[in-house]
Design goal:
Structural class: alpha+beta
Radius of gyration: 42 Å
Order of helices and strands: EEHEEEEEEEEEEEEEHHHEEEEE
Strand content: 25-35%
Number of helices: 4
Number of domains: 2
Distance between the termini: 122 Å
Largest sheet: 5 strands, antiparallel
Length: 326
């Protein structure tokens, strides 16, 4: 083997070939270790991606129910949806509902439970809280605010709420409302009287007598607004159920949540006849009793077929139309 001498110009020295060969091997080994270490340090500088396993609610929107115009005391669907920062629906978020009107009522459609306000609902797998909104007993714009407050781990959220608005239209003659059809409204447009959908007695059966035969009842007038006082006077003078008067039967109107019906006065029943084309009433024909008495033996009726007003013996059997005031 032949080994040559080598001159190092950097250090102005002459090396043997064997010495230079050893130095070359040493330098190569150092570079390999250094490069390996540089690569290792470089890869450790890149952070591992952090993936959140719990979606966090960041916004809420109205899916259904915004800017509705509805009849008073009717219900309509309201849906709100909660989304995360990527626009995906979030399940299990608690949403709080508030309203400036204490009469506003919401019902969860899932289990038909009324939630008093302020109240809460929880989003489903689609990120939605599904509700019925019942309008309060007055007209004008109404609103509720929906605000996500807790995520599925009961952690507080900082998400802005959203306002949902609805307008309740003014009542009109012929509207279905609070146990019947509106046939009279006062000047405010919020109060009046409605007639029961069905006449009494149920099933007809030839009607019922007026009652209190031979008894004069003081104060049974004809005016609008007097039917309720007439009914009270009749029931006090001839108390049921022994004396089953037409007025007593009207006050027991079945099949409704309201228990304050009464027998209409002469002019109240006349209003029902005058508006009959607007009222979807069952059995609105033939003679019907009023709560207005003529004498100890006679009372007024109206023929609802042609509007004829007449008087007849209290023992005669006619149908009757219960009404109530709201």
């Amino acid at each position: 083997m032949c080994i040559l001498n080598t001159f190092d110009p950097m250090n102005n020295k002459l090396f043997s070939g064997r010495t230079m060969f050893a130095k070359t091997l040493l330098l190569s080994a150092f570079c390999i270790v250094f490069l390996s270490q540089c690569k290792k340090e470089s890869s450790s500088d890149i952070p591992e991606p952090v993936v959140s396993t719990v979606p966090v609610a960041s916004t809420i929107l109205v899916v259904e129910g915004q800017n509705e115009t509805v009849s008073l005391e009717s219900s309509f669907s309201v849906k709100v949806k909660v989304l995360d920062q990527f626009g995906m629906p979030v399940n299990g978020v608690v949403v709080r509902f508030t309203s400036p009107d204490p009469n506003t009522k919401l019902m969860l459609r899932k289990d038909f439970v009324i939630i008093p306000l302020p109240g809460e609902g929880v989003t489903d797998t689609s990120g939605i809280v599904d509700l019925y909104w019942y309008m309060p007993n007055n007209s004008g714009p109404q609103e509720i605010t929906a605000t996500p407050i807790l995520d599925s781990n009961a952690s507080p959220l900082n998400v802005s709420g959203i306002v949902i608005k609805a307008n309740a239209k003014d009542l009109e003659i012929g509207d279905r409302y609070r146990g019947g059809y509106v046939f009279y409204l006062d000047n405010s447009g919020k109060h009046g009287m409605c007639a029961s959908v069905f006449p009494l007695p149920s099933g007809g059966g030839g009607g019922t007598d007026w009652g209190c035969q031979g008894t004069f009842i003081s104060g049974t007038g004809t005016a609008i607004g007097q039917g309720i006082t007439n009914t009270i006077a009749i029931n006090n003078s001839c108390p049921g159920p022994g004396n089953r008067t037409a007025a007593y039967l009207a006050s027991l109107t079945p099949g409704t949540q309201f228990k304050d019906y009464y027998l209409p006065s002469l002019l109240e029943l006349k209003l029902i006849y005058d508006s009959k084309s607007k009222l979807s009433l069952s059995g609105n024909s033939g003679r019907q009793w009023t709560s207005t008495q003529v004498s100890s033996n006679k009372a007024y009726y109206i023929n609802m077929t042609d509007g004829t007003i007449g008087t007849d013996d209290k023992s005669k059997k006619y149908m009757l139309r219960p009404v109530r005031t709201f």
